[in-house]
């Protein structure tokens, strides 16, 4: 009897040890599984960051960053109110070089632009960290013209420091950045948006003879400017040096995404020029 009790006791201890060992293994497995899960990089990203980082999956995000929305407003304010200093701030500049010439140009443009309405930003992450590709749709009201014109433009935006945004001038963008913007512009979202705005612009232009005349002048001037630019480039290649103006690149940093006959830079939309 005594031996039976000892054997029974040993058996119970063996069962308890087996259960304890099993529980220990389960805890270890659970801990390892938990640790493996928390080390996955995606788990540290918010849903907004995921969407901004993968436009191919999630599409362009509509007005996701208040700081970029405000930056675009400042750009448009500068155009309408001929504020050269604010325009320089938009591009992250604090110098005075070319500021007077830019002021003259904006004075001319302010005679054309009355307001930018119904503005929406479509944003995705840029080529490098803390950068963004921003497409901007607006309905533009011109002085003395009743019908508003749809306009789609783009900008490459940097964030430095955090929550401080500025647009990058075209001539300061790297080739990789330019290629990335071109890639984003071919996304389904932007192609669809561009097609719709072209359709709306065509309807607006045909419905208002004054607006149609204005755009005809711009298209003609754009073709003339392209021809002149090609001639200047050829001449510059034959000389030892060529001059460039920073204020030109500043205003031209946002351009229309249309790449065919109506590829007009915002910088070129000046009355009679």
TrEMBL record:
UniProt entry tagged with the keyword Lipid metabolism: no
Composition skew (Low complexity), residue ranges: 228-243
Keywords recorded for this protein, A-Z: Signal
Segments of skewed composition (Polar residues): 260-273
Region annotation Disordered: where it falls in the sequence: 228-273
Keyword rRNA-binding attached: no
Signal peptide stretch: 1-20
The name this protein goes by in its record: Lipoprotein
